[in-house]
Amino acid sequence: YSNNIFSKYFVLFYFYLIVYLEDAEVKIEVLFKPLECAQKSKKGDLMNVHYDGYLLDGTQFVCSRSPLWMVVGVGQVIRGLDSGMLDMCPGEKRKITVPLSWRSARRGKVNKQISGLIKLIQSHPVSGPRSMEAFSDMDQNKDRKLTKDEVKQYLKEDYTKVGNPRDDAFYQRIMEDIFMKNDHNKDGLISAKEYNVYEHDEL
């Protein structure tokens, strides 16, 4: 699957994210790990996340009614969660303890209330930029820019190829979120440079 922008599985991950003030490192406790692990989450995966947020006293402050799309490992969420969500097996459950010093994000919006919270997150990994070969597969007219139609068509073909076709609204939702996060200059296109940003180790 290395040449596909979209990974081929829909699974459920569970995360408990706890923010403390004193510890210097992110701590990860594996609560459950399935016997089979077809593919681990990696930097650049596009995640479809449902989450519940709780204060340390157990008070729930948020419950997502619609999924949040994010790319893991590139700074769109707090660094501790970015780190804690890497290398997970489909269906694995983890308890992630994040110190205050790790709660900043390099870019993207950050929940200002994150300090002192426990977040239970259910995420459905859907896709991830993998290579420039995948970019070439999507770039039908070879102009080194991806249009919304090209990305949406690639989605349809890819999901159909693996026997998991979805309705048009599903592809539309993913496509719109991909462009919201990757079309940095908001020109309605994803350039080769914008696409390849997730390939750089320094991010």
TrEMBL record:
The lineage of its organism: Eukaryota, Metazoa, Chordata, Craniata, Vertebrata. InterPro entries: EF-hand-dom_pair, EF_Hand_1_Ca_BS, EF_hand_dom, PPIase_dom_sf, PPIase_FKBP, PPIase_FKBP_dom. This is peptidylprolyl isomerase. GO terms for molecular function: calcium ion binding; peptidyl-prolyl cis-trans isomerase activity. It comes from the Eukaryota. It catalyses: [protein]-peptidylproline (omega=180) = [protein]-peptidylproline (omega=0). It comes from Neogobius melanostomus (round goby). Residues 1-24 form the signal peptide. Residues 126-161 form the EF-hand domain. Gene3D superfamilies: 3.10.50.40, EF-hand. The keyword Ribonucleoprotein does not apply. Its EC number is 5.2.1.8. GO terms for cellular component: endoplasmic reticulum. Residues 44-99 form the PPIase FKBP-type domain. It is an enzyme of class 5 (isomerase). Keywords: Calcium, Endoplasmic reticulum, Glycoprotein, Isomerase, Metal-binding, Repeat, Rotamase, Signal.
